[in-house]
Structures are given as C-alpha cells and as structure tokens.
Amino acid sequence: SVEEYLAFEERAEGKHEYFHGEIFDMAGGSPEHNAIAFNLSSELGRQLEDRPCQGFSSDQRVKITRTGLYTYPDLSIVCATPQFDEQRPRSLLNPLLIVEVLSDTTEAYDRGAKFEHYRTLPSLREYVLVASNRRCVERFTRQPDSDDWVLAACTDPEGAIALPSIGCRLELARVYHKVELPAPSLRLRTELE
C-alpha cells in the first residue's frame, strides 16, 4: 500500500519509486550524472535567487496524483506556493519544471513512461532532459490551452536553451562545467563524418 511504501521509504537508506503496489530501487548516478545535477542546481539556484520560485533537489519526492506514481526527479522547481500531500514524509504535488539527468539505464524510461506520468501534472509546464554521455539539453514545453508538448534542443557547446516557465537560461558550458564526458563511440563518430 502507499502507507507501507511511505513508512518503508522513511527508514530506507536509498530512494525508491512506487507505482501500483510495487517499489522500484533508484540506483545512484555516475560521477558525470552527479556533477551535471550539481551544476544544474547551482546555476538555476543562482538565477532564481531574486524570483518567487523554489528549487528542490533529487531528495524531494514528487507525487503524480492522477497516475499514482511517487518518484524523485533530479530537480524540480515551483514558482507558486509549494503544495504537498498530507502524508509523511511529504511529497510535492505542483512542480512547474522538472529536470532529469539521463543515464544509459534510465533514458528510455525518462523519455517514455515517466514523461507520460509527468504530463498528467496540471502544474507542469516544462520538462528538461540533460544527457550525461554527450552535450545535449532538451526542453519539452506544454503548449497553452493544450496537452501538446513542443521539443527544443541544444547541442552546441557554446549554446544555451531558454526555460521560459521560470525565466532562466541554461548555458551548456555551465551545465557541463568540469564534467569529463566519454569519447563518442566509433559508430557515432562514423555516423557524424
């Protein structure tokens, strides 16, 4: 049950997702993943200092009420009064923007089923995916008065991507600052040539 999951989660050393009676372990990230998440948190925190927005790290659980998923995004931002459920420990209900740093093991889930869950959040306006194996930031934006989402991406190491829902910009040079990315595979290099 949800109550059993929340009680388990309060005692657990790691983090776990919950969906329809099942608990799923959330493995720790790679050094690249963790450095990128730190850079994102630092950069967006700096830009949001004088704005009425609040950021949350990956330790803040988010509840997707319509589907029943409990999960831990890498970063979530609220620009209204944060709303939490009544249970302990409390889960955030109204993120405006969610960021996930991709890994080889989570990329398909973050792009697919997890995004389907996130799209049911009425408050969510932007979903940002940040690659940890190459320089690439993708932003999905919910269109006004619609359930349609539009993709914008940036792969230019000197480029940036705007986050209009929170009035910020992510410069790739800052997102990937001091992050040593793996060399492109031979297959990828051949495709690019």
Please describe what this structure looks like.
The protein is an alpha+beta fold. The chain is built from 6 helices and 12 strands. The strands form 4 sheets. The chain has a 6-stranded mixed beta sheet with strand order 3-6-7-8-9-10, covered by helices on one side. Strands 1-2 form a two-stranded antiparallel sheet. β8 and β9 (137-142) form a beta hairpin. The radius of gyration is 17 Å and the shape is globular. The N and C termini lie far apart (53 Å). The model has no long low-confidence stretch (mean pLDDT 90).
Quick tags:
193 residues, alpha+beta, 6-stranded mixed sheet, 12 strands
In short:
By secondary structure, the chain is of the alpha+beta class.
Give the SSE map.
Layout: H1 2-11, E1 15-19, E2 22-26, H2 31-47, E3 54-56, E4 62-64, E5 69-71, E6 75-78, E7 97-101, H3 107-111, H4 113-118, E8 126-130, E9 137-142, E10 149-154, E11 160-163, E12 168-171, H5 172-175, H6 186-192
Parallel strand pairs: 7-8
Antiparallel strand pairs: 1-2, 3-6, 4-5, 6-7, 8-9, 9-10, 11-12
The pLDDT mean sits at 90
Q: What class do helices, strands and sheet pairing give? A: alpha+beta
Overall spatial form: globular
Main sheet? 6 strands, mixed
Percent range for helical residues?
25-40%
End-to-end gap: 53 Å
Radius of gyration: 17 Å
Strand content is 25-35%
Topology pattern, helix = H, strand = E? HEEHEEEEEHHEEEEEHH
Number of helices: 6
Low-confidence stretches are: none
Number of DSSP strands? 12
Major β-sheet strand ordering = 3-6-7-8-9-10
